Fold each of these.
Amino acid sequence: MFLGYILGLWLLNLVVIVTGDANPEVCSACVIVVGLVQQAELQGQLADALKSHCPGGTVAQRACYAGVDRLMMGVEEKAVPEEICLSAGLCSNPQCQLFKNWPVKDLPEPLPDWPTTRRMLEQHQKTIYINRHGEKKWSLGCLNEQGQARSEYIASSVYNGENYLAPDAIFACQYDDPIDCERCKETVTPLSAKTGLPIVFDYGYRKVLGGNKGAAKAMKEKLKTADTVVVAWEHNNINPLTEALGVDSGLLDSWPESDYDSIYTLKFDAKSLELLSFTKSSEGFSEKKKSNAHSSMKSVTKALFIDVLNTLTDNAYDASSVSTTEDFGLPKIALPYLAVANLKALSSSSLEDSECDRFNVTCRLDAFANYHEPLADRDGDVFSAEGKDVLRGTHWRGIDCNDKDASIHPGVSGVEEEVSGQDINCNGIFGGNETGTFESIFCDASDPRGVIILGDSATAHFHVPPAWLTAKSLDFSNIVLKVLDELDYPQCSWGTGHADPEDCPYQHPVPGIDGVFSIYEGMRQRNRCNTNDYQNIGVNGARITASMNLAKSLQRDTVRDKPALVWLSLMGNDVCNGHEGFDHMTTPETYYEKAMETLRELDTKLPSGSFVVTPGMFDGVLLYDTMHAQQHPLGTTYEALYDFMNCLGESPCWGWLNSDISVRRKTQDIANSLNEVSRQLESEDFQNFKFLFYEVPWKEMFAEYAKSGEPLTNLIEKVDGFHPSQAGNALFAQNFFGWLEREHEESLGGTNPFNDEIDSIFF
Ligand SMILES: *[C@@H]1O[C@H](CO)[C@@H](O)[C@H](O)[C@H]1NC(C)=O
Ligand SMILES: *[C@@H]1O[C@H](CO)[C@@H](O)[C@H](O)[C@H]1NC(C)=O
């Protein structure tokens, strides 16, 4: 299954290697990546992106902004890198090695180790650490033996620049009363001796000394010249001091009498001194059992999610039934985006005309997560308005030109326009003259139709930017938008690509193609009346056994809508997954059963005159032969990368991406047997569509491309070494569309003689 590949595991597993050790340790590399994601600049970017999804209107907007700010704090607070790495299972198998044939050649520069990286990250931030004094002899007394040992430990093992940053300034609370021993000062005296820094001892919680507020002010003032301030304070006054430094009281639990070990970490922006984050951790002097990282991460994330939803919606419903992001196949860190984006969908939707109660989070998220329906969809017609491109919006399906009316959306036949004169099907052609509506004058005789692609990650155009992995240019820009589209680029894909090439991954030259070409583009070039009539229901990891959900997500009305050219394209996952062995591959019997189930479902949804095409599965032997000896951006060979992924149990395709040729051949035999089933489906009868099997001539297609003098590796994704690249997508589209033109032109509908006239009036 591919679901786990969405961002998290892919990045984390692959980046392991760039630590540069001959025997890389998985966890430290994971920590680096998570650390990068936590850096201040990126967080600012995340926060901005989230806020752009907030609803308008002052009250809702303010609540939403507050929720985002709080979420960002939560991400920082809870996302202790080690915990994330543990919970993602990334420290489980450190004996898997990528660089078996180390060194290869031209190795990318390795990333610095984690302490160096962390120091780099923290250059943008200033820090205040708040501790309690050590254990005391009696309630008002001086440090006892344990307290003194603690104070030594703080100097040697806590603020030593490794576990925590070394201080540039030290503050201690002055009790300034005749009876209390000055145990805060005692606690940081060894640290002061070790660092040579004086203890600032002019402040305390008592009013005469300025109180907690005065102390907070002095500490922030100090941050102008110091990067890191260590504070020892009286425990009942730690929370008030922390609040005075800007932390929301809602984030603070009361400090128990028995607790001498906790540390509050407050991070501030180096320039503005604005509070960025608040975290709680421990000195580690009192031996405490480490909590189970996995379960605590889970409950914390879920609690956070529910908390935010409730905050933002005034407890309008019970959010406790919401499932975690794991159910969406997204990394946990994506959860806040979902929460806010979902809120946006909630707040802008009306309840009418919808099967789903839009104020019921479970239901909305369900439709989004399981049926890949857009989150932003006011009228519930499964199309999003212009500008709502991500989260299964217009990158995936044509623009809804009226998102307040469920009867108006792409694909509707033109009949109703003859009555209303409005653009009912959002193809941009509307109005008319005495002769009739332009829709009827220009489109009726042209046999228009839509393009709908049901499929997998190759359909959705999965792509990880190489810059996210290349040690020399690690660059996470645009990560938010990419996550919101599940790391897919349907707007650039072979089936429904329609975007500006500048907004797509880099494309190597493909003879005969300039820019983005897709089946949809081909259809639109034939007939402008097809404009905007596309649906990409590509889901990372989809295989025939899950194809029913794809069919359910398809939006078409047998009566009201135009016919469609549908591709049911599952190019690999039925034989591809991370499991060793052949047991997890789909058998021909299951394939037949599930394919028929899905096709029967399609028969209930597609208007008569439609076509359904299934292309043969990809040729895994060809894929391996093309890639295995090449060098991956990380500096090793693809062969070594594939074996490494297999060792981790995280390979996208154990069977094809395997250095054992007998495994590759047997996997290809199984793929061929499934193709044989698809071929047999051609003899089945369906009421509303004709089924076509396309035995894609992969080898010939690649050989033809090779004649242009370009390397075949251009056709495959650089990072994963598995999916078609942007050039691969273009080549597939050219080949698939060419085959339809030659062999099944009837499936494409007509070529419109009015195209030029339509262009001159409408486009
Ligand atoms: C929300 O929707 C889910 C799924 O449709 C349903 O099971 C649940 O009862 C609904 N909850 C409320 C409060 O209506
Ligand atoms: C209406 O527009 C069409 C298309 O431009 C044109 O062919 C036709 O002559 C027009 N009819 C009238 C009455 O102007």
Amino acid sequence: PAARQPLPAHWRQPLGLALLLALAGPGETLQNVTAQLFGPEAYGTLAAFGDFNSDKQTDLFVLRGNELVIFLADQKEPYFKPRVKSLSVVITSVVPGDYDGDSQMDVLLTTQAQNHGRDELSVFIFWGHNQTLDLNHKTMLNKTFHDEPLVMDFNGDLIPDIFGVTSDSSKPQILIGGNLSWHAALETQSKMYIPHSHAFIDLNHDFTSALQFFFYLSEKIQKTPSGVKVVGQSVFADFDGDGQSEHLLPVCEDTTCQKSAIYLTKLGMDQWIPVLQDFRNKETLWGFVPYRSDKSSTETSFPITLHIGDYNMDGYPDALAILKNTSGSNQQAFLLENVPCNNISCKSVHRMFKVFWELSDLNQIKDAVVATFFDIYEDGILDIIVLSKGYSNRDFAIHTLKNNFEADAYFVKVIVLSGLCSNDCPRKITPFGVNQPGPYIMYTTVDANGYLKNGSAGQLSQSAHYALQLPYNVLGLGRSANFLDHLYVGIPRPLGEKSARKQEWTAIIPNSQLIVIPYPHNVPRSWSAKLYLTPSNIVLLTAIALIGVCVFILAIIGILHWQEKKADDREKRQEAHRFHFDAM
Ligand SMILES: *[C@@H]1O[C@H](CO)[C@@H](O)[C@H](O)[C@H]1NC(C)=O
Ligand SMILES: *[C@@H]1O[C@H](CO)[C@@H](O)[C@H](O)[C@H]1NC(C)=O
Ligand SMILES: *[C@@H]1O[C@H](CO)[C@@H](O)[C@H](O)[C@H]1NC(C)=O
Ligand SMILES: *[C@@H]1O[C@H](CO)[C@@H](O)[C@H](O)[C@H]1NC(C)=O
Ligand SMILES: *[C@@H]1O[C@H](CO)[C@@H](O)[C@H](O)[C@H]1NC(C)=O
Ligand SMILES: *[C@@H]1O[C@H](CO)[C@@H](O)[C@H](O)[C@H]1NC(C)=O
Ligand SMILES: *[C@@H]1O[C@H](CO)[C@@H](O)[C@H](O)[C@H]1NC(C)=O
């Protein structure tokens, strides 16, 4: 059962801030908070999220040329303060994680290999120690990769492993985290698609993530939708709220992306269903921005990616995408809202995407290149970060937009830790944010209309090509303030183990943060969960009202008590008087 914990100090402040912001701008759903968050430091390429210094606040990993800048979350403005690590190589990606199992955040970097030409990637792991990163304490992997590797938990020991095709073998290899030994990962002759979008996620609902390989060039495993010329990155989300992950794929039906679409499929469904085809707004036709693979250009090109998050907490994941004006040159970030299907073509999945064309502040950012969700104030509401061109020749500008969505919607924020040192951590610091790939979370609840509602999400299912996934999941619950009836958490298990490693918690209070510590890994009964409550405005008002009523009742009781005591005293005095009288 979940033990209730006292509120961590850093949650009190954002509440005051949120109240203030809510008073300042009613009606505005998005608000530019870049200056408060970064001060003058709002530039670079956002590459990953993770709690680097175990203070329970998510930090940002940003690239600036040859520098890795870690923005540590802080209590005072600017809320993110940079710490610079300089390297002499061109960094192409960053994946934080605990690669040796000591519960300290390490950082994996891929860089352009210096003596292998531009197509090969070298991989470095910088070992975290005592909440810092020592640049001299690093390991360079002695194989290079054809494409960015996927970080996953191959052997179910909750230490992240590194998967990819290396230059010395045509078959995918896995580097086991911990002892750093290489193994062949799977038997296949097919070539991997570059840029790949492999994911490590539970698709068949057995609470064990299985690696999904999409887009082998041979179309044996999974065919792309017919007539598709440009394929974007696969992404996995519980699109229709049935408790299972669906596979979403953004595509273009011509090579220049004049005609874009998003398709969906799921396990047991053998065709692709379009969930968004209408990219026309008034006179302008929008489309995805195709990936330029030529590495000679100094500008970073991003694959076509949907970044998933439940913006309005209705229990159905929404998405952010970058679209360009097909007849002009402008490109912008757009919010794709998950709405009930109103078209014959998506009838079988009941849901579809609708583009929010006019979202002020989001459409004021010109030349956007990446847009993703992030819970800036750790209050359970997903805010938006956008990168755009134009800060300088080399660096992108970072914009942060706070989501002031006020619709009495509820959520639960879940983070599953590795549980590797729950009793015996160095310096007694509970490892909080060592990004853990692979856990799977599912819930069932009853919605406002009394129907059963499911939802699910995988934690850190993808890591390559700026997947920018958050180390936690925010599950929207809609407007029903009901308890979460059941919450299931599963973690990967070693090959050959029969029973699923999964545990169930019941009656979770909404608007709370649940931290699951799966220790020991193979005894789910003993796993623990800590519940932190986020005081939403309603909870606060209720508390104030309750305290008010209590004070009122206490006052009445006090007055009555006092009156009774007075009457008693009077009576006693009279009695004494009488007695006195009688005695005479
Ligand atoms: C947000 O604020 C920052 C700093 O004040 C400014 O540079 C940026 O242009 C603003 N962005 C938008 C979209 O207004
Ligand atoms: C770790 O850092 C703390 C303070 O930052 C310091 O007091 C301590 O000596 C360090 N320990 C080691 C082993 O470096
Ligand atoms: C790579 O490193 C491993 C262990 O660190 C070693 O066993 C192996 O021989 C090395 N491979 C090459 C090609 O150097
Ligand atoms: C490394 O660990 C894996 C899994 O725990 C094991 O299969 C492998 O034999 C180990 N390798 C070495 C060199 O110890
Ligand atoms: C939710 O999941 C339960 C059991 O896992 C299933 O019986 C039910 O049909 C699901 N509900 C929906 C709406 O998919
Ligand atoms: C709805 O259906 C029509 C006709 O099949 C199609 O042209 C249109 O693009 C569809 N819209 C969406 C959002 O799927
Ligand atoms: C798209 O580009 C065309 C041609 O440059 C322009 O006329 C139109 O206004 C642009 N649309 C938007 C929404 O910017």
